[in-house]
């Protein structure tokens, strides 16, 4: 299962440097999962504007590249924020995303619902010569009415179980990204995810 951490001022030590992040003046707790990939660093958190919550999500995914090419699968996640579940004129909260792939259409919670939890599909480290590491390959998000929003599918990796659920709603995101290494290196892009509850 996941862990819940209580935040009152900021997220200390997010990248091991002890920074405190601006969470838009909001008290927030963090929900996590236990199966995230091991590579990369935590990027900055990005919050929905005060008074709004995440009610939709979109996914940046690289399609399979073929036998001799480097795959990265899931590269990014955007939260689509709204007030009262109204999707018009909303704000997209996005922590760091990888450079590969395309953004999907927005998946919205029905009935003016909002996001309350998530789970990740992750390929465990292969640790084999010539293996292509991809880390996170897909994600699912739970809506307040029990509906599940799922990203574009992948044949790689296993689902790791749901995070704890927010008592009210998801209001922010932080990603763990492996940087682009360039020629002759194995890129994995998105490795792990934290969501903020407000």
Structural account:
With 198 residues, the protein is mostly beta strands. It has one domain (29-175, 189-197): Vitelline Membrane Outer Layer Protein I, subunit A. It contains no helices and 15 strands. Strands 1, 2, 3, 4, 14 and 15 form a six-stranded antiparallel β-sheet that branches. Strands 5, 6, 7, 8 and 9 form a five-stranded antiparallel β-sheet that branches. A hairpin with a 4-residue loop joins strand 11 and strand 12. This is VMO1 protein.
Record keyword descriptors for this entry.
single chain; Vitelline Membrane Outer Layer Protein I, subunit A; 40% strand; 198 residues; VOMI_sf; five-stranded antiparallel beta sheet; signal; mainly beta; VOMI; VMO1 protein; globular; six-stranded antiparallel beta sheet
Q: How far apart are the termini?
A: 21 Å
- In the predicted model, the low-confidence regions spanning at least 5 consecutive residues are 1-20
Briefly, what CATH class?
Mainly Beta
Average predicted local confidence, pLDDT: 79
| β-strand number | 15
- What number of domains? 1
Q: What is the N-to-C succession of helices and strands?
A: EEEEEEEEEEEEEEE
Do you know the CATH topology? Answer: Vitelline Membrane Outer Layer Protein I, subunit A
* Name of the CATH homologous superfamily: Vitelline membrane outer layer protein I (VOMI)
CATH architecture: Aligned Prism
Q: Into which percentage range does the β-strand content fall?
A: 35-45%
Which geometry do the CA atoms define?
A: globular
Strand pairing plus helix content: what structural class? mainly beta
Helix content: under 10%
Number of helices: 0
Radius of gyration: 16 Å
């Amino acid at each position: 299962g996941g862990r819940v951490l209580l935040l009152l001022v900021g997220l200390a030590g997010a990248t091991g440097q002890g920074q405190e992040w601006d969470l838009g003046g909001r008290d927030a707790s963090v929900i996590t999962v236990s199966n995230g990939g091991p590579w990369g660093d935590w990027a900055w958190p990005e919050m929905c504007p005060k008074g709004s919550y995440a009610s939709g999500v979109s996914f940046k995914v690289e399609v399979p590249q073929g036998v001799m090419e480097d795959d990265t699968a899931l590269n990014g996640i955007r939260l689509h924020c709204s007030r009262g579940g109204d999707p018009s004129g909303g704000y997209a909260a996005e922590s760091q995303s990888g450079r590969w792939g395309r953004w999907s259409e927005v998946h919205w919670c029905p009935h003016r619902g909002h996001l309350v939890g998530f789970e990740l599909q992750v390929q465990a480290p292969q640790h084999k010569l010539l293996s292509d590491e991809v880390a996170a390959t897909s994600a699912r998000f739970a809506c307040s009415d029990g509906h599940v929003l799922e990203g574009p599918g992948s044949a790689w990796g296993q689902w790791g179980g749901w995070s704890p659920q927010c008592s009210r709603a998801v209001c922010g995101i932080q990603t763990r990204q492996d940087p682009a290494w360039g020629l002759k290196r194995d890129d994995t892009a998105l490795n792990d995810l934290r969501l903020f509850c407000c």
